[in-house]
């Protein structure tokens, strides 16, 4: 990595944050039979899979992964989903992304479920950057970072072939 990259979280710290998020989800949904974990592609999906893996080990309820691909450059909601959104009716959905910056991605993620009567919709992010243009808050966050707008947070996970890390550029 170039010198201008500052390591914010290493592999062990990322796993600790994911474990903590999973335990918070468990505490919030202990009485549920099943929850749906909706990962926003490409990186939120990887975080969601890790959260699901921890929940599979600790939770009495079942968790099911669903994927959402959003066109983040569009001025309107354009999403590709790998599930029938009506199957989410009266269920708990956890919407997961890697970094919350402006809030636009999570706002679009909410839009996928706008016509479905959900039991609960919660959000989980690994990094909350506190630069919201949209009124988004997270229910579960690994870490909140106060950064300047010109800085970029990069989440690198081992699925990319590199060691896990969260870097500030």
UniProtKB/TrEMBL annotation:
Locate the Phosphoribosyltransferase domain: which residues? 8-140
Which branch of life, at top level?
Answer: Bacteria
The signal peptide, as residue positions, is: none
Q: Does Plastid appear among the keywords?
A: no
| InterPro entries the UniProt entry points to | PRTase-like, PRTase_dom, PyrR_bifunctional
Q: CDD domains, per this entry?
A: PRTases_typeI
Tell whether Zinc is among the UniProt keywords: no
Q: Which Pfam families match?
A: Pribosyltran
**Molecular function in Gene Ontology:** glycosyltransferase activity
Q: Can you say what this protein is called?
A: Phosphoribosyltransferase
